[in-house]
Amino acid sequence: MSKPTPPIHKHAQSSNTDNTQGSHKQQKLDPSHSGGPKRQTQLDEYLVGGSPPRRQAAKAPRTEQRQTHDDPRQRERENRKLLAQGILEAISSGSYTSKTGTAHQISIPTELLKSNTEFYGESDTRIQIPPRHRQDDMIIDTPDKPYTLSLPSSSGPSSTKFKTTFSIHERSTVAVTRSYSPRKYVGVLNFASAKKPGGGFLSGAQAQEESLARSSNIYASLMTPTGTKFYETHHKDEEKKGTAYTHSMIYSPNVVIMRNEFGEWDEPYAVGMVTSAAVNAGVLRQRVARDQDVDALIEGLMRERMGRILGLFKLQGRRTLVLGSFGTGEWKRTNIFLPLTTCVNLTGVFRNSVSMVAAIWADLLKADGPYDGVFEEVTFAILGRQTYDEFRTTFHKRLNYKD
Description:
CATH architecture of the largest domain: 3-Layer(aba) Sandwich
Structural class: alpha/beta
Number of helices: 14
């Protein structure tokens, strides 16, 4: 006769996880693990229905972690850091796979990019701003409507080759660059940090340079011994030049853009890139004596720097350019050293005036300007609606165009 089956307790029906937790609880109840009077008090509370002390301690970091992940800005920053790591891996391995599943080899282009990177000091005589001359007309195209601006004819023969087409788009530099045919010999301006290659792209920062660094192999060029001269110059001259920085530049030929504006791996697209740092107008305003005309100082420095940028593109044979609101960034108001009633658009990390930058580009590129007819197409990629609107209005006004 078989023995009666013992009664089934609830613990016997528990899952393996519950059994593990049960044995864990028994271990907690062992006086040899009490850890002293305070621990014993916690165990006594547990015996009358309290929660295990270890479980309570484990909840805190999980709650903190949920709060971190619930912050959209932090999530976006973490995603940008992952994109940066992906680019570094592609540069290191020499290949990547596009969203269509196509494998692309970039090891040879990257090595050529590194070996052909050039540094141009602020007084490099290879860059010459051409004399002024006049062109009969300029074709201007905006996202809203195409139009032609007629200008007075020159009194003498024109030496220009192109009727420059201007476009102003509220899109990123990567998006605008990819809109061109790969057959175009495109030059792109990198709004650089003066002291840190790629700016803060490795830490997930968001600005124009960081976007380019997360989308291409430009970082490989900036980190070459030739490229790092740019940053060494600004560290060395910091005390002498402050935040005005220098007119030094890096030219990176055939940078491979691997991602699109959405951060997806896409078909490779090669461009020539000029790396230059704008004047840090925000800090310069704080350091310059109040009795000095700081606005004139900033404008003079920016005019010379932007002229040299165009000179380098010309020297390198880039006739289609993607520029932007250099040294400004997202729009917001400020009143540093200005009357409270004054509203000036000084924006971005370097806080230059959007209107000033737009006016300088127009002066350099317009008919009878130093670079009249030098370039076939010039596109301005600008993010931020208010920055876009102010830039467009000023640029048109400088060219005597009336909406």
